[in-house]
Amino acid sequence: MPNAFIIHGVGGTPQENWFPWLKSQLEQLGYQVFIPQFTTPEGQNLENWLATFKDYEKNINEESIIIGHSLGVPFAINLIEKHKFKSAFLVAGFVGSTGNIFEEGMKTFTHRDFDWEKINENCQKFYIFNSDNDPYVQPEKGQELKSKLKNSELITVKGAGHLNQSAGYTKFPLLLTKIKEAF
Question: What pLDDT sits at residue 104?
Fold first, then answer.
């Protein structure tokens, strides 16, 4: 059975944005879907999030996919550095500095030397979704990810803000289409 892991961002929960909708859609396709609740913003650091995810690691298999949103993207990349995934779907993501108001609480996730060779070995395909008017993540951050991830596709969504609920994203059909295409 394929498993899907959806990773939220700063201040996030499993019940926000398009996560519940995507969970339902993927379950109808036969996925087992996991959406962990991570400590945020208090206690938000890579070490704590990795400790929370430890309980989910036993569910990773060769058919598993990972979907990250915002800070969930660099966290997903940290996981891919350690585990094999079939595909990764990186939404409103980045590595390094964003210069936004959340920068300080994201440094342990993003300000490090990633083993890009290992990351590229551990995941067959990367899909990168960015918006051209994201208030938190500059559009060029998607291009930066694409340059580091060998087998990747960059999809720019026009006028989609941070691809979250406040930008009108309680459903994300384009993401679902790309997940279906990946299998």
Answer: 87
Long-range contacts: 34-40, Cβ < 8 Å, 24+? 34/3, 34/4, 34/5, 34/6, 34/59, 35/5, 35/6, 35/7, 35/8, 36/5, 36/7, 37/8, 37/13, 38/7, 38/8, 38/12, 38/75, 40/8, 40/9, 40/10, 40/11, 40/12, 40/71, 40/105
135: helix, coil or strand? coil
Stretch 158-183: mean pLDDT: 97
Give the pLDDT confidence score for residue 8 in this predicted structure.
98
Q: What is the DSSP string of 41-86?
A: STT-SHHHHHHHHGGGGGG--TT-EEEEETTHHHHHHHHHTTS-EE
Average pLDDT of every residue of the chain? 96
Domains and CATH numbers, the chain: 3-181 (3.40.50.1820)
Q: Specify whether the CB–CB gap between 52 and 38 falls below 8 A.
A: yes
What is the tens place of the pLDDT at every residue in 80-105?
999 999 999 999 999 998 888 888 88
Write phi, then psi, for 14 (nearest 5 degrees): -65, -15
Query: What's residue 62's pLDDT?
Result: 86
Q: Which are the contacts of 137, defined by CB distance < 8 A and separation ≥ 6? A: 70, 92, 93, 94, 98, 100, 130, 162
